[in-house]
């Protein structure tokens, strides 16, 4: 199983990080909502280790879902948080507790964002190749 590390930085307006392979090379940038005490639909997920599973979302199609029962996150419940997905989006305001990849960071309109989420998402999906993986999330 492939292992990835998400190194985060926290801000009032969002959580921004870089996703790395085990060898330290960068895969993509990531954007999330700010940390709001793990509040459902409004907060990024807590730091820790998650299993990534291929997931078919009615809204986002093929994507990946995070799961870590010990952190209160499962794909289908019952748990504190369910359906935490990695899907396409550029701004934290477009997310409801999920994560979105981008090729770089930038200021779009009046909000910090990741850029070209569609390309980054497709590259990440190719890298994951439809197999489960391990994601460790930590503060940078």
Description:
The protein is mostly beta strands. It is built from 1 helix and 12 strands; from the N terminus they run E-E-E-E-E-E-E-E-E-E-E-H-E. It has one helix at residues 117-128; strands spanning 2-11, 14-21, 26-32, 48-57, 61-67, 73-74, 81-82, 85-86, 100-102, 104-108, 111-115, 133-139. An 8-stranded mixed beta sheet has the order 8-5-4-12-1-2-3-9, covered by helices on one side. The protein has a two-stranded parallel sheet with strand order 6-7. A two-stranded antiparallel ribbon has the order 10-11. The model has no long low-confidence stretch (mean pLDDT 96).
Largest sheet: 8 strands, mixed
Low-pLDDT windows of residues: none
Spatial separation of the terminal alpha carbons = 23 Å
List the strand order in the largest sheet.
8-5-4-12-1-2-3-9
Order of helices and strands: EEEEEEEEEEEHE
Question: What portion of residues is helical?
Answer: under 10%
Write down the overall mean pLDDT. Answer: 96
What percentage of the residues does DSSP assign to strands (E)? over 45%
Shape: globular
Radius of gyration: 13 Å
Overall structural class, as computed from helix and strand content, comes to mainly beta
Number of DSSP helices? 1
Protein name: DUF5675 domain-containing protein
Domain DUF5675: 6-129
Pfam families: DUF5675 (PF18925)
Organism: Photobacterium arenosum
